[in-house]
Specification:
The complex is a heterodimer of chains A (368) and B (59). Chain A is mainly alpha-helical. Chain A contains 16 helices and three strands. Chain A has a two-stranded antiparallel sheet. Chain B is rod-shaped. The chains are: A mainly alpha (368), B mainly alpha (59).
């Protein structure tokens, strides 16, 4: 495929998909699709991501990528906590802080290192033509469906309920405290890295800073358009449930799918679900970028052990994300941006899970 | 065995389009009034993604 053909295909993929969504669903969802595409393109173009960045710090004490994710999270607090309070009709990602989040995020952390990508990273990888990420995505679905089956029991385990930190500290103090905590973690990361490696590059590059700002701006656009904070993994559970339903499984008999929001999403077209639309946009955006730059021509060898790790990682992430009420984006980025205490539990538990996952990677011929 | 990114992207888009069309066709009535109703209900997303939270809040 010549370069102009690739570029034409990329543009056609994005524009035609958006128009079809506008035609079949709504202008709102067509715009949301394009916002999702923008997020994917920005994340690939600037190299923002969680899984590899966290692993590079844990294994090699290279803090730059990890610091970038902390900057992204701090920026989300500054933007979204006031936005959620100030814009009518918007709703934050608040969830109960308890055992379910701790166990789910731990499992998710293991899975994201085995799968080589988190919720957004998996979509970016698959959209860019990574066979491993496609495996992760395919096995994410049954893991998510199993998570929805078990979630009612997990919710009944001990928890503090939904804790909105702004209820206790107010908006301004909450933002200051959250930024201070992210800065403290970042400071500790730099100190640990310096102790091991001496002088280290820790400041995010210009590209990473621009990328972080762009991601937050686009996530704000998603909030403004949909009224909801950016999420990813509910769509995986929904897709799994819809596929099971298409295959004749009685999904309506599962308690989770009788709850108001999931039942509504299940009974409507997938094109009506804002999370699905954003995910589809992200996939299409990254695929379009790969076609645009000609990256799609690259060939990779198919090796079985890494694909087993991808399948296992995807399944674990799917299950863990349901228990933890989301992934790095829904639970951590949007959760902390909503001042929900569960986001901080998620952060700690997923961090431990990442350490465990990194230990498992060499068993599947994955390089740390 | 080697596989190109084009093949993976093509397979992914094929699965996604087939799934979306199958689900959309099953869920949406083809007449205009039903589509309008669906649009309204589709826009009613004012709830947390886990769903369970809303149900708990609502008792």
């Amino acid at each position: 495929m010549s370069n102009w053909t690739g570029k034409a295909t990329a543009l056609a993929l994005l524009l035609c998909s958006a128009l079809v969504i506008i035609w079949l669903a709504s202008v709102r969802n067509g715009l949301l699709f394009l916002v999702g595409a923008g997020i994917g393109i920005v994340m690939v173009a600037t190299g923002i991501g969680f899984t590899g960045a966290w692993r590079r710090f844990i294994v090699r004490r290279e803090p730059q990528g990890f610091i970038t994710t902390l900057f992204l999270l701090a920026l989300a607090s500054v933007v979204f906590i006031p936005a959620l309070a100030g814009i009518d009709g918007t709703i934050g990602n608040l969830a109960p802080a308890g055992i379910s989040v701790l166990v789910g995020a731990l499992i998710f952390g293991i899975g994201m290192q085995l799968g080589g990508g988190c919720g957004s990273g998996t979509l970016i990888g698959a959209g860019g033509g990574s066979l491993s990420s496609l495996f992760v995505l395919l096995f994410f679905l049954p893991g998510s469906l199993l998570g929805t089956i078990h979630l009612p029991w997990w919710i009944s385990t001990p928890n503090l309920g939904v804790v909105d930190i702004t209820d206790y500290l107010g908006q301004s103090i909450t933002i200051i405290v959250q930024i201070a905590l992210f800065a403290l973690v970042g400071f500790a990361a730099v100190k640990i890295s310096r102790n091991q490696n001496g002088a280290v590059t820790w400041r995010p590059s210009k590209e990473l800073i621009i990328g972080s700002v762009a991601v937050v701006v686009l996530a704000f656009a998603a909030l403004f358009i949909s009224g909801r904070m950016w999420s990813i993994t509910f769509a995986h559970a929904l897709w799994a449930a819809k596929l099971a339903d298409l295959a004749g499984v009685n999904v309506n008999g599962i308690e989770f799918w009788t709850y108001a929001y999931p039942a509504n999403a299940l009974s409507n077209s997938v094109l009506a679900d804002v999370t699905s639309i954003t995910n589809m946009g992200l996939l299409a955006g990254v695929a379009a970028l790969a076609l645009w730059v000609g990256k799609n021509k690259q060939a990779t060898a198919v090796k079985v052990p890494p694909l087993i790790a991808a399948a296992l990682g995807g399944f674990l992430m799917g299950y863990g994300a349901r228990l933890a009420f989301g992934c790095n984006i829904g639970a951590l980025f949007s959760g902390s941006g909503s001042a929900s205490l569960h986001a901080w539990l998620w952060f700690g538990a997923a961090w431990i899970g990442c350490h465990l996952g990194i230990r498992l990677r060499p068993h599947f011929q994955l390089v740390n | 065995m080697y596989i190109t990114r084009t093949m993976v992207i093509g397979l992914l888009l094929l699965i996604l389009v087939a799934f979306t069309l199958a689900d959309h066709t099953k869920r949406v009535e083809p007449d205009h009034s039903a589509l309008e109703v669906w649009r309204v209900s589709g826009a009613a997303n004012a709830c947390a993604p886990c769903g369970a939270i809303c149900d708990q809040d609502d008792g």
